[in-house]
Write a structure and sequence with these properties.
The protein is an alpha/beta fold. The strands form four sheets. Strands 5-6-7-9-8 form a five-stranded mixed beta barrel. Strands 1, 2, 3 and 4 form a four-stranded mixed sheet that branches. A three-stranded mixed sheet has the order 10-11-12, with helices on both faces. It has four domains: 127 residues, N Utilization Substance Protein A, Chain:P, domain 4; 65 residues, Beta Barrel (OB fold (Dihydrolipoamide Acetyltransferase, E2P)); 76 residues, GMP Synthetase, Chain A, domain 3 (2-Layer Sandwich); 93 residues, GMP Synthetase, Chain A, domain 3, CATH 3.30.300. Helix 2 packs antiparallel against helix 4 and helix 5 runs antiparallel to helix 8.
């Protein structure tokens, strides 16, 4: 029996990943609960021998001349049979026979033990997935209900709310999907693991997994912005001049970036090299449009960008998406105009300046005559 108990504890420890001593502590607590419920004893303690599996139960009782409360007191004669050096008024631990509690006590102990195991398992899972917060996990879609997907991610289920998916994510039961672990919290029912496929850091983590140079810290993602399902822009940088940060992310023949694009269901990705030249950074941020001129005001962090007429719609993007992402990425307020518009404004300004010059010249001439 004792060996069977130790074998059971060893098995649960391996399967649930819970420390053996923690399980024994939980079993001791479960047995205390069972003894109290069945025998109505107070001041009960339970000890399980870690090596042999032997269980000893004792109830602390007060030594009296005449016993009036059987559950709390023991006669001096009975006490001295346990310890001859005791006297009236002292307390003594009295052994309790485990066989006295029968099936009900055993069932109670079993229920409490399982509850303790679930609590311990929840703590282990919480710690495991809390360490994965901010990283990517791969899982299998189990079901969809109440506005979210439930994804099996190993030892736990993650919650992927519909609002955290992209417009092109139509996940089916049994489908394998990658998600970003956004948040892990403990609730009364166990760990709640919130997943996301919309978070910009999801794309950053995909690059970290796919690009060894980013994983090893040789290439750094300075900033990343995203409109899920449509376009992502990121700035990359490397202190090592021998490493091409953009080329590292793209991969040979585009294999690395294409792998990420497939995972994102065709979302477009613009990879921009970091530079301290604000004009160049703004021009690159408006990729895939070709920029001809950039004028900046560093105090107000505003920029005017001139593009060829044929590039204007591309620079602005659908519903202003491209320029909006470029502004988020660089932190600059960007105004875009075409060459023809710029030439027209320039011509108007030139004519205005000419008129002002003529007016000043006429005024000067009038003053001279006078």
């Amino acid at each position: 029996m004792n060996q069977e108990l130790l074998n059971l504890i060893e098995q649960i420890s391996r399967e649930k990943g819970i420390d053996k001593n923690t399980l024994i502590d939980n079993l001791e607590t479960a047995l205390i609960s069972a003894v109290r419920k069945r025998a109505w004893l107070k001041n009960v303690s339970v000890t399980i021998d870690r090596e042999r599996g032997e269980i000893s139960i004792t109830s602390l009782k007060t030594i009296v001349e005449t016993v009036r409360r059987q559950k709390e007191e023991i006669s001096i004669d009975e006490a001295q049979e346990i310890d001859p050096n005791t006297s009236v008024g002292e307390t003594i631990p009295v052994p309790v026979s485990i066989e006295d509690f029968g099936r009900i006590a055993a069932q109670t102990a079993k229920q409490v033990l399982f509850q303790k195991v679930r609590e311990s398992e929840s703590e282990v899972i919480y710690e495991e997935y809390k360490s994965k917060e901010g990283h990517i996990v791969s899982g299998v879609v189990m079901r969809k209900e109440k506005g979210c997907y439930y994804v099996n991610i190993g030892r736990a289920e993650g919650v992927l709310y519909l609002k955290e998916t992209t417009p092109f994510d139509s996940l089916k039961r049994g489908e394998t999907v990658k998600c970003y672990v956004e948040d892990v919290k403990m609730s009364p029912k166990g760990p709640v693991i919130r997943l996301s496929r919309r978070n910009p850091n999801f794309v950053a983590e995909l690059f970290r997994v796919e690009v060894p140079e980013i994983y090893d810290g040789l290439v750094e993602i300075k900033k990343i912005v995203r409109e899920p399902g449509e376009r992502t822009k990121l700035i990359v940088y490397s202190e090592d001049k021998a490493i091409d940060p953009v080329g590292s992310c793209v991969g040979m023949k585009g294999t690395r970036v294409q792998s990420i694009v497939r995972e994102l269901r065709g979302e477009r990705i613009d990879i921009i090299p970091y530079t301290e030249d604000f004009r160049m950074l703004i021009a690159k941020a408006l990729s895939p449009a070709a920029v001809e001129k950039v004028g900046i005001n560093e105090e107000s962090k505003t920029a005017v960008v001139i593009v060829n007429d044929s590039q204007l719609s591309l620079a602005i993007g659908k519903k202003g998406q491209n320029v909006r992402l470029a502004m988020k990425l660089t932190g600059w307020d960007i105004d875009i105009m075409s060459n023809s518009e710029y030439d027209k404004i320039k011509k108007e300004e030139t004519e205005k300046q000419l008129q002002e010059s003529l007016a000043r010249a006429s005024e000067n001439e009038f003053k001279t005559i006078k």
